[in-house]
Amino acid sequence: MRDVLLVIRDRVVLALVQDDPSFSMLHPDQRVDLGLYAADDPERLATDLAVATDLLLRFLAPLTVEQLARPCQYAWPEPATRSIRWMAQQAVHEVEHHLDDARRGLAPAG
């Protein structure tokens, strides 16, 4: 989730400075396979997630309606023209989705 928030922040920057940019894939499964998260402990991850969330929120907060409407090309879930507003909404969706996953994973069995 930390990486998703940071990548969305970078994509917002590109959408603000380039006309109708497209983005490469995040490759979440490959990040795991490459061992990029192997050294993360829960405390460090919690701190990183708080920082990534704060950075994205502070960056999005002052954007104007016109800036939020700027288009970009997203390949997921299918190729489509999206907006910065959509990216912000997608970030909220991803956080909620992964929070539900974490709660299920931490729930006692049975």
Summary, kept brief:
Helices cover 62% and strands 7% of the residues.
Which secondary structure elements does this structure contain, and how are they paired or packed?
Blueprint: H1 2-17, H2 28-33, H3 42-60, H4 65-68, E1 71-74, E2 80-83, H5 84-106
Antiparallel strand pairs: 1-2
Helix pairs in contact: 1-3, 1-5
Essential attributes:
single chain; 110 residues; mainly alpha; 5 helices; 2 strands
Q: What features would you describe in this structure?
A:
The chain has 110 residues and is mainly alpha-helical. It has one domain. The protein has 5 helices and 2 strands. It has helices at 2-17, 28-33, 42-60, 65-68, 84-106; strands spanning 71-74, 80-83. The chain has a two-stranded antiparallel ribbon with strand order 1-2. The longest helix has 23 residues, at 84-106. The two termini are 27 Å apart.
How much strand content do the residues show? 5-15%
Structural classification:
mainly alpha
**Amino- and carboxy-terminal Cα gap:** 27 Å
SSE string, helices as H and strands as E: HHHHEEH
Shape: globular
Which percent range fits the helix content? Answer: 55-70%
Q: What is Rg?
A: 15 Å
The largest pleated sheet is described as: 2 strands, antiparallel
What do the pLDDT scores average to? 91
Quaternary form: single chain
| Count of alpha/pi helices | 5
- According to DSSP, the number of beta strands is 2
In terms of per-residue confidence, which ranges show pLDDT below 50 for 5 or more consecutive residues? none
